[in-house]
Amino acid sequence: MKRTLAAIALTLAVPAAASAQDAPRIYANLNYEFVSLNSFDTGGFDLFGDSTESASGRLGVVVHRFVAIEGEYGQGLDNNADDGVAGYDNRFAGFVRPRLPITSAGRDTGAEVFLRLGYGSTSVDSSSVGGLDDLSGLAFGVGAQYAFGENDRFFLRADWTRYDFGELDNLITGDDLSASVFGVGGGVQF
Length: 190
Prior knowledge:
Elements: H1 2-21, E1 25-39, E2 52-64, E3 67-76, E4 87-104, E5 107-125, E6 134-148, E7 154-167, E8 176-189
Antiparallel strand pairs: 1-2, 1-8, 2-3, 3-4, 4-5, 5-6, 6-7, 7-8
C-alpha cells in the first residue's frame, strides 16, 4: 500500500514540477537603439543622415523554454531631418522569439541566444519625400541575453533587427527599403 501511495505521489509530483518550471514568465525591458533607414541598391545610403537614436520598450512572455512572444514600441529621440531626407518618429512591432538557453552541466547559466521573427510598422517624418510616412513589413533579427539576480529576475540584452519595407515606387530611387536597429538594454522578469 505504501508503494502504491508513493508511486501515485511521484506520478502527480513530476508533472506538477515540470509545469511549474515551464510556467509562462512575463518580462519587460527598455533599450537604447541606433537606427538607420537604408536603400538596398544605393550602397547603404542612410535616409536619416547620421545615425539616429531611439528608445524602445518591450513587453513579452516566455511561453515555453524555447519560445517567447513580444511586442515593442520604439520612439525616436532626435527626430529631425536636417542631415538626411527623413526623420525617425516611432515604431510598433510584434515578434515570435525562438530562444536557446545556454546550459552547463545540465543547468541553465542565465545566458541565451535568440532569433526575432515578426512584423513592424515605422512612422517617419518625410516632408521632402512623398510616400515615406508609414513603412511596414517583415522583420528578423538575432540577439543575446544574460539573466542574473535571484531567480534570474533581471537581465541585460543586446539585439540587431532588420525591418524589410519592400519597394517604394515614388521614393528617390524606387529601391527596396530596410531599417536596421541595434539595441542594448536591460529588463526584469516577473
